User: Fold YrdC-like domain-containing protein from Amycolatopsis japonica.
Amino acid sequence: MARYFDVHPENPQRRAIGQVVDILREDGLIAYPTDSCFALGCQLGNKQGIDRIRSIRKLDDRHHFTLVCQDFAQLGQFVHVDNAVFRAVKASTPGSYTFILPATKEVPRRLLHAKKKTVGVRIPDHVVTQALLGELGEPLLSSTLLLPDQEEPMTQGWDIKEHLEHVVDAVIDSGDCGVEPTTVIDFSSGEPEIVRRGAGDTSRFE
Assistant:
C-alpha cells in the first residue's frame, strides 16, 4: 500500500521529504511531480525498481530512462558534455528538457541504450523535485508516469494513489501537474536532434 504525502508546492515540508527519501533508500519506488508531468522514480542502483517501472509502463529494453539531476555539477558526473553542447544544455536548464548524451562509467550498464551507450539527463525547474534531490544527494532514475492504456499522463496525486497504490511505495502530491512530458533532445552525435516535442520550446535547437 503506497504512502501518500501532501507536500506544499512552494515550501515543501522537510519531514515529508525526508520520509520519502527514506523510502527511496530502502529500494522504494515513488510517483512524484516535476515541471512537466508526474514521474516514477527510484535510486540508481535499485534494479528491482527499474524492473517495476518497466512492468508498470510495459516498456521494452530499448527505452531511455532519465537521470533527474539537481544541478549541472551532478549532471556532469553521469554524462560527457563537450563545450558546444554544454552551452546549449546550460541555456535550457533548469527546465522541461531531457538531453540524451554519452554516459560516463558512473551509469549502471543496464540503464544505457544498448548500442549508443547513452542515457537521458535533465534538471527540473520544480521546487518539490529539487527538495527531494537535495535530500537524496544523487539523481533519481525516472520515467514519465504514462500508463500503457492511457494517452496522457495522470495529473492528480490522489488519482495516481488510487490507480497505483499496490505497485508503488509512495505518492507525492503538490498540486496538479501538466500532461506534456519533457522535450527530448539527442546530443549523442554532437548536433541536436529533436526526438520528442513536449513542454520545452524547441526553437533554439532547430
